[in-house]
Amino acid sequence: MVTDDPQGTAALLEMRGIVKQFPGARALDGVELDVRAGEVHCLLGQNGAGKSTLIKVLAGAHQPDEGQILLDGEPVTIPHPVAGLRLGIATMYQELDVVDGLSVTENVFLGHELATGGFSQRRAATRRTRTLLARLGHSGISPHREVGTLSAAGKQIVSMARALSHDARVIVMDEPSAVLDSEEVANLFRVVRDLTSQGVAVVYISHRLEEIRQIGDRITVLKDGRTVASGLAVASTTTAELIRLMTGRNVEYAIPRRPPVREDAATVVRVQGLELRGVFQDVSFDVRAGEVVGLAGLVGSGRSEILETVFGARRATGGSVQVGDRTLRPGSVSDAVRAGVGLCPEERKSQGLILDEPVYRNITLSTFARTARGGFLDEAAERRAAGEQIEALDVRPGDPERAARTLSGGNQQKVLLARWLVHGCRVLLLDEPTRGVDVGARAEIYALVAALAAQGAAVVVVSSEIEEVLGLADRVLVVSEGRVVHEGPTSAIDEHRVLDLVMEGSAA
Question: Per CATH, the architecture of 1-88+169-251 is what?
Fold first, then answer.
């Protein structure tokens, strides 16, 4: 194991020899982690390396089979999450753990409500929530607002406020920037630095290696449930070395270059004057066979809603979507799927997958008619069709019977892509395709998008990473406040200009 700890500073938190066994899988195999007060300790590893399991052990959601957890050098037992919070360990999970039917204040103090003499102190809780939101740079969010009406970024802020409400000594942040735009990420980093200046230890998990450079102090790398590097100094560890440690090989991180779209390529999808009242308006664009079009903009600009409306998951209040010579019925997902349109949504767990169903069933959801015999599903045919895609996309583990929820984020994304590949879609809509995906799987997804375009598919990509949009797409539409404020080839625009357009549009 690689180590780098010249200072030898005493750790606030230590995890020694942590082992966690699940049926058929050893998720953690003697993991070591030490975190100092006042530092940002980055935990890296591919999807499935054991990061999520490790933080669930730390939070008390899982009990280790072997190993020891120490705080200030003293062994502690964390039998359940409430015990972890009492010890000063707060966890922000990648899957947003807010309750949509409750208000912001009720979510922030869920499980540790402010009360005196058995009576709830609602005004005090509201005041404290307002202070926490202001500290996070989001004083515009009302403490009384129902969380279900917030965007994914807003819900992330509420989850962060809940963690801060515990006055934690250790805060674990699992992919905290995944649903944030660049300005919100900068604000997140400000909050993190504020916390560490007060002696709070932050365990920061991210697949965005550029973020690690900006916010991290030291790094621990997991691979296959083991610690392969511990306490590496961010400043002296190269990106290439981190990728090698995570994957066991050298991975080309760059987006593959593609030849220009043919001049005579047919238009596959035509969007004209599309509107969703109150969200976006007058959106028009074409996508040709073999072309990738990117939608860039801030979170909440309407990017995701445009894709969902094209797919029929939202009913347009104006305009039209045409695939080939067929005009799609507004609000009809079935019509879109029959026309060959597929969507990989931003929230793959809640919107894309049936988590408790097996992998093969998630892959064949869009093609039941092809695998039915006499009105009954032919499960053998389903498994064969899914198995081909599992092998082609290198879904791991390659067990088609495994429940989708047991897969890592990157492999869940591959399952969603496999669904539309087996369907043979002509138009593929990708919303944040690499969100929460490790560097190895990200490179595979980039290569897959390029391959699909080479086969003549029309691809539309939404990503919060402007560099990713510009790298993948042939043309880019910049969306601001529900309007397209720019359309043109990606070769004629750069990241700074996109940001300028976004901010100009927001201020207009």
Answer: 3-Layer(aba) Sandwich (3.40)
Residue 314 has, within 13 A of its CA and on its CB side, a CA count of 22
Q: What is the DSSP letter of 236?
A: G
Phi, psi of 428, rounded to the nearest 5 degrees: -120, 120
Question: Do 57 and 28 touch, CB atoms closer than 8 A?
Answer: yes
What is the SS3 assignment for 204-219? EECCCHHHHHHHCCEE
466-480 per-position pLDDT tens digit: 888 999 999 999 999
Sign of CA dihedral 106, 107, 109, 112: positive
Residues 6+ apart with CB under 8 A from 424: 340
C-alpha 108/C-alpha 122 separation (Å) is 12
**Does the domain at residues 266-340+427-438+452-508 carry the CATH identifier 3.40.50.300?**
yes
What are the backbone angles phi and psi of residue 469, rounded to the nearest 5°? Answer: -60, -50
What 3-state class would DSSP assign to 499? helix
Mean pLDDT by 10 residues, the chain (508 residues): 62 96 88 96 88 94 96 96 92 82 93 77 93 88 93 82 88 85 82 90 90 95 93 92 80 75 94 96 97 90 94 97 96 95 89 92 83 72 89 87 86 90 92 83 87 94 89 95 94 88 65
Q: What's the pTM?
A: 0.67
The DSSP letter of residue 352 is I
